[in-house]
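re: that complex we talked abt at group meeting.

here r the seqs, copy pasted straight from the sheet so there may be weird spacing, ignore it
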Amino acid sequence: MRESPKKSQKRQELIQTIIEVVNRFGYENLTIRDICREASISIGTFYHYFDEKSDVVRILFKGIDDYFEDSVQPTFGNDELENILTFVSEYALYCHKSGVAITREISTAPLINTSRNYLSSQRRKLSIIIEGVVTRGQQKNQITRELSVAQIAQMVLVGMRGYAADWAKNEGSYDIVEAVKSHFIVFNKGIKPLDDYITD
Amino acid sequence: MRESPKKSQKRQELIQTIIEVVNRFGYENLTIRDICREASISIGTFYHYFDEKSDVVRILFKGIDDYFEDSVQPTFGNDELENILTFVSEYALYCHKSGVAITREISTAPLINTSRNYLSSQRRKLSIIIEGVVTRGQQKNQITRELSVAQIAQMVLVGMRGYAADWAKNEGSYDIVEAVKSHFIVFNKGIKPLDDYITD
Amino acid sequence: MRESPKKSQKRQELIQTIIEVVNRFGYENLTIRDICREASISIGTFYHYFDEKSDVVRILFKGIDDYFEDSVQPTFGNDELENILTFVSEYALYCHKSGVAITREISTAPLINTSRNYLSSQRRKLSIIIEGVVTRGQQKNQITRELSVAQIAQMVLVGMRGYAADWAKNEGSYDIVEAVKSHFIVFNKGIKPLDDYITD
Amino acid sequence: MRESPKKSQKRQELIQTIIEVVNRFGYENLTIRDICREASISIGTFYHYFDEKSDVVRILFKGIDDYFEDSVQPTFGNDELENILTFVSEYALYCHKSGVAITREISTAPLINTSRNYLSSQRRKLSIIIEGVVTRGQQKNQITRELSVAQIAQMVLVGMRGYAADWAKNEGSYDIVEAVKSHFIVFNKGIKPLDDYITD
DNA sequence: GATGAATGAGCTTTCATTCAT
DNA sequence: GATGAATGAAAGCTCATTCAT
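got the structure back, here u go
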């Protein structure tokens, strides 16, 4: 039995509210009671729309994946190094807009949850996007072939998430977008093909 | 009244046991009861040697700081880019030896704890070490001066910790030392002074 | 969001039960578990209706204050010495009806609690009532002016509470109402104005 | 097997220290550890000289009884009303000298302890002393015969202990000796034989 | 005599989850 | 659909007491 569109819509509304609540309260010490009080719903209602608390984390992750698929990927141009910069800058921007608490949760959440491995599938999405960028970059000779696509893609993701985690740990005390840009300008230099320096 | 050497020694033994336990169980959902059961001591004994649960985290952090101060820093040579590689490789090695759970804890622990800011001081130690390396690197013209010491140091630390977190999230499924080395070979290229390419 | 009348009513019922339980068990060594077992509720339910254990003490005190404000004060007549007798007798009667354990708790509770000074405000209420009686008594020349209002009021309260404590310590082995009456007949003689003996 | 005089003496020394500690720390939240740390003895030593924690309370009570038997009673004169005043004043003075914490403990300790009724016997001592005073007072026609000896003795003790409790609850914020004196001057008026007012 | 390491029952409090209304 | 009362396992931590050294 499929769920009614009405229920689905209400759930979406709740998700928006919950995201705001998480940002104000943080996730670590956030209780279902907190969420419900802030969202002005009853505990029963929460459990009517969601199965368990960890659904909230899933929601958070789905948000960033959707954003990249729907809003970031379409803006990619021909310069793949530039696309990497766009990719990581957008990620930083998303963190900035989501706030410290959600960023912390996104960047420290375990890959495999006790009950469901909701992350393994989600996480792949960003990997696939960045792997596409790197593959094309190598084909166009914009990116070194000394390292494999997987290696470079991992470097990008790890660095990017590293900043998200660090920024959240530091309570958003610096401009994450600028920091990430600076870092990946350096990084991009490192993955340029060597002859690039000569011909460019 | 100073603490007896015997008590101090026994505490050290317990710390070793606890570290092993944390690695087997993880920290997040680790309870005092778990620790005590695994270490075959009573709850009372745990509290005889430690003040509170978070002492365990402190212990974990102290370990890595001591290692860098005592064992890594003295091995630094003249080539500061090489020293950066040594630094991050040793960090990766420490993660590898400490195991997944402790690495996760070290890399996701909040910067500021509610009760004591035991991390802010600890965290500075690694910063200071790497900042020294970068400073000397710039002086010797081994590292670009286009970025500030603080910026580059942050890049190193964030990238390094990013790998620790990623590796732990992936349950240690890849060779963290190799991954980190590859990454920082790329990174080091990025922070070489430009003329380096010509004169070198 | 105001609390529902239903919750409020259920809390009142629980309070009644808890008062009985306190009387059977005493307070000093009373645990939440005891209360819940005896009241046939779960621990969670207790904390659903109350914030913390010490709420129970507050409840006990509120009871006696309400009783004096609502039921005793309105019965005061013109003879202020008689009113003192009414006051202390009613207090004794309240102890008698509340039982030994609650009386013990009421009479030995510290004036200032660590977390909230719920007593300082409560305690004032009885003081104010008795000070009013003494003031009027002095104005009507029914009570000596050789001592201040505050002094005499303190004497009444201290004596009265002294009996409550003593009676509770003796496990209610004597008739507290009679003992208090006898005492304050003596006391009242002591605070009559001297000329009273001549003119009366 | 009688205990050695040496052990007995050492115990006496410890008692003195413990009394001081109780006064500084209070009793309610005083742990054996606290006592031992402050008295600079080990926990084992405490249990070598005492059986259990509540021995400390016994010690406190024994102190006041000894004081009255040894130091107060011998000073009694012919005027029994004056002796009552001496009695209660000395009690107040003892409280003053013992400090707030010990006074609180003395005045709120239950009559019957869970393990031993160490108080019932102790408590009788002060009763016996004051009953002697009242008896002689009635014989000399210094005290009314309208009330029984037991009644009047109880009134004195209850009032006196009431002040001790009140003073401790108020953290020693007023002069207990003066307050007690004032109270019992009033009280003494109340227990004078009636004709006394005529003939005196 | 003196020590203090070791014990573990027991404390208050939290909170995700269920389910009758 | 919506509610929130009820649950109870489990958490961190305390502390009087024992006993081997």
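couple things i noticed - Residues 59-197 of chain A form one domain. The radius of gyration of chain A is 19 Å.
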